[in-house]
Design a protein that fits this description.
The complex is a heterodimer of chains A (379) and B (456). By secondary structure, chain A is an alpha+beta fold. Chain A contains 13 helices and 4 strands. In chain A, helix 10 crosses helix 13 and helix 12 packs across helix 13. The chains are: A alpha+beta (379), B mainly alpha (456).
Chain lengths: 379, 456
């Protein structure tokens, strides 16, 4: 007829009964590549067109179950593996409490993938360059007519035969529908420069906006964060005080909470004379003493008090605790050294409580008698 | 006695319009310039929206201290409005999904509009928990996402279930709505006379061709979505009620809450849909598509759900007495006789007493009466949420920590703003999208389906 490529021959019918009859006859005549177009779904058309039942439900089933499995596995991973946190004394994996989220994710996943699968995979939408678009035929089946289309790729297709076949079925109008130039293009539209430019611009705008929002906008007024409060932060400047410091010195004579003042500060002789070790040499006390000794004393004095520092010369090595001098000291004298420090050794009063200091003294005594054991110790 | 033949289904569309006539009447608002009344309506709703925006700006700058909430009532208007709006949305899904599964053909005329209302109502609802967090710009933490703090959300908290329920509900409603719109967009595309309209409708129709090979899967997809939307809508308000029921506050810690909340949601939602449809059918001459029968059926649903809500009110009192729990008993006496008794009695009269007028067919079919009752039902349902949230919190176990909640002007401003948002979106919707589903209504008019004689 002309040099254009034929897509199909299509006929229009006026009533639902006619179109049902026409599609049954088309199936009987052996046409395979045909389709019926109607402004709304017609009851009984699936049988008339000899269509198999829709398999869409399988997509729903697969993605619904995957959604449920993913949600449960994810919550299990979060609460049991990644960050185990006991909430309300319940087990880490609390199935009843996980059901609402599992249900919602199942529905979400099933609904999204059903629709996406149908529209974008099964129907291959979006497709706005189909030969049927923009034809009088499509405009009529879109409104109030019923159309039957037999495609030119059908093995039995013959333009004149199909036209007379449709007319014999009672078609009110018969159209020959051709491809236009745009619809015949086979090159991949994804590589269209305009489309690539569109993608680049979109990527730049989205990433720029995201960067600006997350890194700049969120730190502007009136957006504020919990750390920003009407108060003076430690180590910060503050003009309220004459010296410009935000932090204040404690008032003269102030004592920190839980801290007992030491009355023999700088008086080792008095400490040695008057301080009495009232802590018994029990196993528990020695354990505490050992623990504290190994944490606070052993880095310099060595694990057994032999003055074998682990600091490798970064700090001067202290003399051994097994010397004659230390062995003959009273408990009070050792206590005084821990509390007040001696030579380069600083005070450990902040780190070790009074009771624990006495426990350390007891432990040192045990170490000393272990290294220089006397006959009487064997009994 | 007159005998009725129940085997013949009455027509759901009046006056036997042709298929083309349906296209013409439904698409007219899209093809004509807006009328003066539309401009008046959108300027009113826009003003309300602006009031809300200003109140929100004040809240952003001064924090939630601008509201009336304080100890012990930390959940005030924000949560009341959240529950109220989520409830409004439920009617849409009920009409579009549950009535679809029940093969109620009369739903076709009103489903599109009801679904649109669902989407807009859920948008209004979603706003409130987001601003309720105090620093809404950090709401991203509500979603479980991998972060360098290795910090995750608490999957055992009803508040987190809410995040999932409401966002899923919104997404699925939107998908459901859009799937229903695709064939209509294709029809609009083929009717379009201007080039810009044609491009826009082509994009949204995705190239739909009304092919019966597509319709077959499309109907299956619609059925599946309806099947999922039905348990979803029930789960959403159930989970909203868990926000209360899972806590230990007297008056909240009850197992009746999920069904009671769902019934209340359908009740208020139908009232809102009925109100809006009365206006739409009048303005756009859709009285033959959205018929008086539709409205009457909706009134019957309201009467039924109203009775369910009334039963729940009575049962709460009964259980309080029957449990022998002194705190529970006090809470309910306090609701009826305490400082918020006025709110309680507004709730009871609007939700239980006034809908009883719908027992009379004459009142059920009177536009004026049903409109007034619909408005009152929504007033009553708003106060129901107010009573639940505020009375329980203001007087709980410790009398020493009792308090009284008075909303601030900004609370009221945001509430007005949410109505502004809702109505503005609805007004834009009715000018851009067909308010009645073309393909669905065409399928149910007389003579639209083949007569199955002979070979079938």
């Amino acid at each position: 007829m002309n040099n254009k490529t034929l897509y199909s021959v299509s006929g229009l019918f006026n009533t639902p009964n006619e179109i049902i009859h026409a599609s049954e006859e088309t199936v009987n005549a052996g046409y395979k590549k045909f389709d019926v177009h109607s402004p709304y779904p017609l009851h009984g058309m699936n049988q008339a067109m000899n269509l198999k039942p829709s398999k869409l439900g399988f997509i729903t089933l697969i993605f619904g179950l995957s959604g449920a499995a993913f949600a449960l596995a994810f919550m299990w991973w979060v609460n049991v593996i990644e960050y185990p946190l006991v909430i309300g004394g319940k087990p880490l994996f609390q199935l009843p409490a996980f059901i609402p989220v599992t249900f919602e994710v199942t529905v979400l996943s099933a609904a999204i993938f059903t629709v996406v699968g149908m529209l974008f995979v099964m129907f291959k939408f979006p497709n706005n360059s189909h030969p049927l678009h923009d034809t009088d035929y499509m405009k009529k089946v879109s409104a109030d007519k019923y159309g039957l289309t037999i495609q030119s790729i059908d093995l039995q297709f013959d333009e004149n035969k199909v036209t007379s076949f449709l007319k014999s079925l009672g078609a009110s109008e018969v159209f020959s529908i051709h491809y236009d130039g745009e619809e015949l293009r086979t090159d991949n539209k994804i590589f269209n420069p305009k489309f690539i430019l569109f993608l680049i611009v979109t990527a730049a705008v989205v990433s720029g906006a995201t960067y600006f929002t997350l890194n700049k906008l969120l730190f502007m007024s009136p957006f504020n964060w919990m750390v920003e409060q009407d108060r003076v932060n430690p180590q910060s400047k503050n003009e309220f005080f004459a010296d410009g410091f935000g932090m204040r010195e404690p008032v003269e004579g102030a004592i920190s909470r839980g801290f007992t003042p030491y009355k023999f500060k700088g008086q080792p002789e008095n400490a040695a004379r008057y301080l009495i070790n009232s802590l018994p040499m029990t196993e528990i006390n020695l354990k505490i003493g050992k623990e504290k000794f190994e944490i606070f004393c052993s880095p310099c004095h060595g694990n057994f008090g032999k003055g074998d520092s682990r600091l490798k010369g970064q700090f001067p090595n202290p003399p051994t605790l097994h010397s004659e001098k230390v062995r003959t000291w009273s408990d009070g004298a050792i206590f005084h050294v821990i509390t007040d420090g001696q030579n380069v050794m600083p005070s450990h009063a902040q780190q070790i409580s009074i009771e624990e200091r006495w426990a350390v003294v007891n432990y040192i005594r045990v170490l000393q008698s272990a290294v220089n054991a006397k006959e009487s110790d064997l009994k | 006695m007159r005998s009725i033949d129940y085997s013949i289904e009455p027509s759901v569309v009046e006056g036997k319009p042709t298929l083309a006539a349906i296209d013409d009447v439904v698409t007219r608002p899209l093809d004509t310039k807006p009328t003066t009344s539309w401009y008046v309506a959108i300027s009113i709703s826009g003003t309300m929206l602006l009031v809300g925006i200003i109140s929100l700006a004040v809240t952003f700058i001064f924090g939630v201290g601008a509201w009336g909430v304080n100890q012990p009532v930390g959940w005030g208007f924000d949560i009341v409005n959240f529950v109220f709006w989520v409830g409004i949305g439920h009617a849409g899904t009920l009409i579009s999904a549950i009535l679809f599964l029940l093969r109620q053909r009369w739903r076709t005329g009103i489903a599109r509009f009801a679904e649109a209302m669902t989407i807009f109502a859920v948008m209004c609802a979603g706003l409130f928990p987001l601003i309720h967090t105090g620093r809404p710009w950090l709401d991203g933490y509500l979603m479980p996402y991998p972060n360098q703090h290795s910090l995750w959300v608490n999957f055992t908290s009803p508040l987190l279930w809410d995040v999932f329920a409401v966002s899923t509900y919104f997404t699925v409603s939107l998908i459901f709505w859009y799937v229903g719109l695709i064939p209509d967009f294709a029809t609009l595309r083929d009717r379009a006379t201007s080039k810009i309209k044609k491009i826009i409708y082509s994009i949204f129709s995705l190239g739909w061709r009304h092919s019966n090979r597509h319709w077959q899967h499309y109907e299956m997809a619609y059925l599946i979505l309806a099947g999922f939307a039905t348990p979803l809508v029930l789960s959403v308000h159930t989970i909203v009620s868990f926000d209360f029921a899972v806590s230990v506050i007297p008056g909240w810690h009850t197992t009746i809450f999920p069904p009671y909340f769902v019934a209340g949601a359908v009740f208020s939602g139908f009232a809102m849909v009925q109100n809006m449809l009365i206006l739409i059918r009048k303005i756009f001459n859709l009285k033959h598509i959205i018929t008086l029968d539709h409205l009457e059926k909706m009134n019957k649903v309201m009467l039924t759900t109203g009775l369910m809500v009334g039963y729940a009110y009575a049962m709460e009192f009964f259980i309080a007495w029957y449990s022998g729990n002194a705190t529970e008993q006090f809470v309910f006496l306090n609701r009826a006789l305490g400082p918020y008794a006025w709110a309680y009695w507004i709730m009871v009269s609007c939700n239980v007493l006034i809908p009883q007028f719908f027992w009379f067919k004459k009142l059920r079919r009177s536009i004026v009466v049903m409109f007034i009752i619909g408005v009152l039902v929504n007033v009553g349902m708003w106060f129901e949420r107010f009573v639940i949230v505020v009375t329980s919190l203001s007087r709980d176990y410790l009398p020493s920590s009792w308090g009284h909640y008075i909303p601030s002007i900004f609370d009221i401003g945001i509430f007005i703003g949410s109505f502004g948002l809702f109505f503005t979106l609805l007004l834009l919707f009715i000018k851009t999208v067909p308010v009645v589903s073309l393909s669905e209504v065409k399928a149910v008019i007389d003579g639209a389906q083949p007569t199955h004689g002979g070979r079938h």
